[in-house]
């Protein structure tokens, strides 16, 4: 809610999960889910969709360490399953300069990419054309 994000499309999320194309990773501390990352994947790339944290966990420094550690563990996991690209899912230098600096600190490069969803009805119409 704080980031003004819309709720994820449940059908899309469950479909991606069923295809092993959706991943959720969590850091727990004292039985509390402190940091959570969600990803979508293809055969080559893991793309970060969202990074959430529990706002009731007030140790910002520790929460920051947990977030960095979770990114590191996620990278190692994705590498272990053969993915080549760890996509941090966008960068907003003006809106979130601290997050942008964090993402840039990994090196790599910034690329412009696009994401789209094919809805069932439209897909059926296009399929019949071809």
Gist of the model:
Helix content is 37%, strand content 23%.
Task: Explain the overall architecture.
The protein is an alpha+beta fold and 130 residues long. The protein has four helices and four strands. The protein has helices at residues 10-18, 60-80, 97-104, 120-129, and strands at 22-29, 32-41, 45-53, 85-87. Strands 1-2-3-4 form a four-stranded mixed sheet, sandwiched between helices. The model has no long low-confidence stretch (mean pLDDT 84).
Throw out a few tags for this protein.
single chain; 130 residues; alpha+beta; four-stranded mixed beta sheet
What does the secondary structure layout of this molecule look like, with pairings?
Elements: H1 10-18, E1 22-29, E2 32-41, E3 45-53, H2 60-80, E4 85-87, H3 97-104, H4 120-129
Biggest β-sheet description: 4 strands, mixed
The H-and-E topology, N to C, reads as: HEEEHEHH
Strand order of the largest sheet: 1-2-3-4
Instruction: Round the mean pLDDT to the nearest integer and report it.
Output: 84
**Tertiary shape:** globular
Fraction of residues in H or I helices: 25-40%
Number of helices: 4
Low-confidence stretches: none
Strand content: 15-25%
Q: Which secondary-structure class do the elements indicate?
A: alpha+beta
What is the gyration radius calculated from CA atoms? 17 Å
């Amino acid at each position: 809610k704080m980031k003004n994000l819309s709720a994820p499309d449940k059908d899309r999320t469950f479909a991606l999960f069923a295809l092993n194309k959706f991943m959720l990773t969590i850091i727990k501390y004292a039985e509390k889910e402190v940091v959570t990352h969600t990803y979508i994947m293809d055969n080559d790339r893991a793309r970060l969709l969202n990074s959430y944290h529990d706002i009731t966990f007030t140790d910002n420094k520790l929460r920051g360490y947990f977030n960095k550690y979770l990114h590191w563990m996620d990278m190692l996991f994705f590498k272990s399953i053969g993915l080549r690209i760890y996509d941090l899912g966008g960068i907003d230098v003006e809106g979130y300069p601290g997050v942008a600096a964090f993402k840039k600190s990994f090196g790599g490069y910034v690329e412009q990419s696009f994401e789209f969803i094919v809805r069932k009805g439209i897909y059926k119409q296009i399929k019949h054309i071809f």
